[in-house]
Amino acid sequence: MTGVIFLNTLRRTWLQMVYWGAGLGLMALFTAAMVPFFDSMKMVELIQGLPPILLAAAGFDADLQVLATPEGIITVGFFGKFALIFAAYPVVMGMRISANDEDDGVMEVILSLPLPRWQVIVERFLAYSLSIVGVGLLVYVGLWLGVALVDVQLDMGRMATVVFNVVPVLIFVLAFTALMAALLRRRQRALAVTTAFVIASFMIDTVAGIVGEGLSQTLRAVSFFSYYDAAGIVGEGLDQGKTLFISALAVLLALGSVWAFRRRDVGL
Amino acid sequence: MAVIETRDLTKVYGSGRHEVRALDQLNLQVQQGEIFGYLGPNGAGKTTTIRLLLDLIRPSAGSATVLGMDAQADSVALHKRIGFLPGELALWKGQTGAQVLRLVADLRGGVDAAYRRELTERLQLDLNIRVRNYSSGNRRKLGLVLALMHKPDLLILDEPTGGLDPLMQQIFHEIMFETRDEGRSVFLSSHLLPEVQAICDRVAILRQGRLITVEQVSRLTQVGFRWVRLQLREVGSLPGRLEALEGVSEVSVEDSSVRLRLSGDFDPLLRALQDCYVEELHVHEPTLEEIFLAYYGNGGAA
Questions:
Q1: Where are chain B's structural domains?
Q2: Which pLDDT band holds residue B300 (cuts at 50, 70, 90)?
Q3: Which of A109, A117, A120 to mutate to test the interface with B (most CBs of B within 10 A)?
Q4: Is residue A5 within 8 angstroms of chain B, CB to CB?
Q5: Could you give the ipTM of this predicted complex?
Q6: What's domain B2-221's superfamily in CATH?
């Protein structure tokens, strides 16, 4: 029956979603609550004195004057590494789309029910995507609470963009994990390849950030981390082209996982 | 009407040196309203057949129709009418039996709650326990309720009574007979020969992916051979004469008792005994296990 897998997946995921959201939300809250204790200009001076390699490794390569704003402080303090920390979540959830149940033998029971295979993958994918939005929402609530606690003036609309712009990137990671699980069958194999992909993406993004202009910037586009630019959003606003591109890629990979899962043997 | 029909159904895993022919050109028909036993040792291809019928895996060659529909193309429609119990039942460990039943009922739709309750009571299954805390027998009972609760036209059961105590096995047999009496069909894979003997109408024997034979269970126990035990006053030279008889083999002597295996008619044996004083004569039909071994022992002919 349509929607049952979706609702069941949400029911079985909400607690993890709350844990992840609470953890990341608390980090956002503390970062926001610390804003009044920063001397922005001193921090800019301090950071300007840092070698570019350290700046890039910290995930901050935009206009340093942005740091003078509360949004900039929060971006450096929290959102610079937000995508990296948060990336573990869609990997864990992506394994649950098919790999975990297939390895445990539960998929045999599920697919003996009157459900098309695509429906299992699509409903689970949608449920986990929604849970990513849920974690994002809790992060935003944490940020909002932190701001309310210390009475800092913050452009909350812009901060919402910063928070939720990570969603398409993480849904892309979710789709990639689902595709690997559908192609490689075994949980351990899929997890190994996906983890290697995340680490490689991070390395490419970091190294390209250090090297600067030229070929490295083209190479950087290969890394999904480059599609989440918190500092860029604070400084220049949302790059809609990048967001649309990574969203389209996520949809393509998700469709790929459905295609791969439909055509192969299950539960061997 | 055949509820299951396979035509040269073949499944090959791997390729080249690693190729394994799990099922080789299986041609099988299971009729409506029968309990069909599917026998074979581990690795014979029983589970592979079931997975092919359920479209969990795809055939390398051949085809299968179930309830008149193509097992692959019409799998979703078919699954509405099939109840399946896998050999190694895995379920969501953190959920209670009740939650698992509710989820599967929701996914199926149209499950009769009263019948589900009746099955649970008959099998004495406590639904408030988490799956991870169920004993293997209780997990099996839960699997049986899942397979039976929507009153499917065809039940496909892989080793259904593993872990069930004798009382529950009896209840399971009753449920199977009721299913058959309602005109529904059961495809039961097992290596427990007494179980097949007790409830199946026909049985197929599978070996290394190949179908050895399909027989009525009653005929299978008759057509092969019999064990004969003679209690004689004096054995004398009888064993030597018996071994020379057509259809007599495996003659063994213990004191004044002679045991032999007899294929074919009794007449040659009775004539050979006319000079002997026979105190007792016992005839035993072979068990299915012995028939099973006989099939395997000489490559397919009993």
A1: 2-221, 225-285
A2: very low
A3: A109
A4: yes
A5: 0.81
A6: P-loop containing nucleotide triphosphate hydrolases (3.40.50.300)
